[in-house]
Amino acid sequence: MPQKDSVIWASCCDFETAQALKREVCIASPDCMAKSCEYINREVHDAVDQAGRILIKMIEILGMTRLEPLWNLKLFIESVPLPFATIVCDKFLWWFNGILPKPLPAKLQALTQEFDHHMLMEFAEYTPGELEGLMSRLRKFQDSKPEGAVKFHVCADAHERSRATLFRFAVAPAFRTYCIGLGQQGLSIDYALPKNFTQYPELPAQYPVSRRLVYSHFGCNVYHEDYVFDNGIDAIEKVGGKLPAEHGHGTEYAAPADMQQRWRRSDPTNTMTSVIIKESWGAKLSCFRTVLPHASWTMRLVTRSEAHPTRRQGTMDAFVGYSRFAFAEARTSMRQSDVAKESQQPYSQLVAEDRMITIQESQIRYAGAAIIALVGVYKYVGMVAAGSFDYAAIAANAAVAWGVFESGRQSI
Predict the structure, then answer these.
(1) The 3-state secondary structure of the chain, one letter per residue
(2) Do 104 and 14 belong to one domain?
(3) What pTM value is reported for the model?
(4) Which of 114-118, 143-147, 206-210, 398-402 is predicted least confidently?
(5) Do 26 and 173 lie in a common domain?
């Protein structure tokens, strides 16, 4: 552990000067090197300032450990198969970003307005005199450049250090919010460059980029670039390329319409490719044929519990238990044919049918969650009519619906 350390924000007039600062100060000697050295350009600062203030404040208040459940909730909401679910959280972060103050302290904010290139460095003293040696190099480097070409600020307290560090940390997650807020498309890449280069690569003019965000682990020349493109620009298609090249269509890339049509012809029941192309045209009817007969029993159960208040307490537990029974019964009935046909069918067909059962089971759970939600609405309307509210029952109903829906999502 270092005996002491300092966090320094340095701003430079151009990229070449920032590179020279890294070589002549941060990594000039293997016996006296910066602990860390990060780089961002003006576009990165603007993106975090316009889209990352809420994230920075939440990390500052909650810490990373307590933030994780909220981040998982955001990912869950984005996975819900509803219109706008994938962007609603980032739209919220974008719309309400301005209610919070600037994320950087005033002195650092002034540097970001004056310069386009910035470095966040941490100097540590592992051996006596190391920290002062690094600071001496930095002051000597500043004096060797034209006046105003390099300015730096040593973070004086824990608040400044924390804000500077969190600002750099928020770059990657803020980029998604930034693109969604602007209504434009984004692309993120990373690469490494040789240690003796002086300028990062220029982009071909035929592929216009609206904004180019460059940030780097400067000490090891690992670069991240986030590109913001106007909608309608497709540089890959323009040169006859196709995405993806290796992993197929699925999580990030939707299958083109012509490919989906070919798959429909070769796989009419969507047994083999439902997850790949994010559709399920073959399993929908069978799902509801299995679940809907249980819906009438569910409504009778709720109606009776409303008619007899003493039964209300056990209604939800009974329904959840019955739902589990219904799911198990449906899965068992769908698997019965496998046992009878296993000796006659080839392995590939058995795999296809098992995949179909998994899809159907997931959709059964989706339908079950919808039924539970409808039961909750029914109970709420009854409470409004009666003029009394049981908030615990409403919360329990919502929690059960969420749990059943989540189990269906994870079963595929």
Answers:
(1) CCCCEEEEEEEECCHHHHHHHHHHHHCCECCECCCEEEEEEHHHHHHHHHHCHHHHHHHHHHHHHHHHHHHHHHHHHHHCCCCCCCCHHHHHHHHCHHHCCCCCCHHHHHHHHHCCEEEEEEEECCCCCHHHHHHHHHHHHHHHCCCCCEEEEECCCHHHHHHHHHHHHCHHHHHHHHHHHHCCEEEEEEEECCCCCCCCCCCCCCCCCCEEEEEEEHHHCEEEEEEEECCCCCHHHHCCCCCCCCCCCCCCCCCCHHHHHHHHHHCCCCCCCCCCCCCCCCCHHHHHHHHHHHHHHHHHHHHHHHHCHHHHHHHHHHHHHHHHHHHHHHHHHHHHHHHHHCCCCCHHHHHHHHHHHHHHHHHHHHHHHHHHHHHHHHHHHHHHHHCCCCHHHHHHHHHHHHHHHHHHHHCC
(2) yes
(3) 0.59
(4) 398-402
(5) yes
